[in-house]
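Appendix B. Raw example, untouched.
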Amino acid sequence: MATMDSKANAAERTVEDKLRALFDLQKVVSEIDKIRTLRGELPLEVQDLEDEIEGLETRLQNLEAESKQINDDMLSRKNEIKEAGLLIKKYEAQQSNVRNNREFDSLNKEIEFQNLQIQLCNKHIDQFSADLKNKAEVIEASKTQLEERRGDLTAKKAELEEIVSETQAEEDRLQAKSQEVESRIDDRLLTAFKRIRKNARNGLAVVTVARDACGGCFNKIPPQRQLDIQQRKKIIVCEYCGRILVDDQL
């Protein structure tokens, strides 16, 4: 109910009251901007480091899963070599009891095939060993990089927390003041203020006329328009940058 009453009262205020409220709001949000500027790029740097660490952790998990698969494949090939060796011994024993040359040749071919299988498995094992070595090097490098990034993140978070702790109380006070001032501005005008501020490079939606020029874009303001601004009878915006103009006496 209080908010509705304040908005109703805002609609009844004079143009000068509205201009003063807009200018007051601009001063408050500019102070909030200064606090956030003090924090600089630290929040983004912290977010970037957190994203990078998450990516490195995922990469490590994938590398370790791939290494496990290679180890499993290597073990499988070693088992195949053992089985092939047992078959060779079996076929060699059978060759002692063959009844004709055809059976002997058939067993001989089986022995040759198993020997080829052993050679192929050994070739795969050599390749797996090389792959494991490469994976181990990449995993070690990734772990080192991960630890470095975690250290960077800890330092950046501590730096950010220190700045936040020093400025949070002031920002909270300004935020409360900002909400109080906003309650004195009608919704349509407040929406326009926020839209202009969002598009303004320096966050200034309301500027004074100084030295016959717009305080935002510094383009000259015609004398008649300056007179209209000084009379405070209507909301006037800069025809060049779209900012709301007020006289420096406001």
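End of appendix B.
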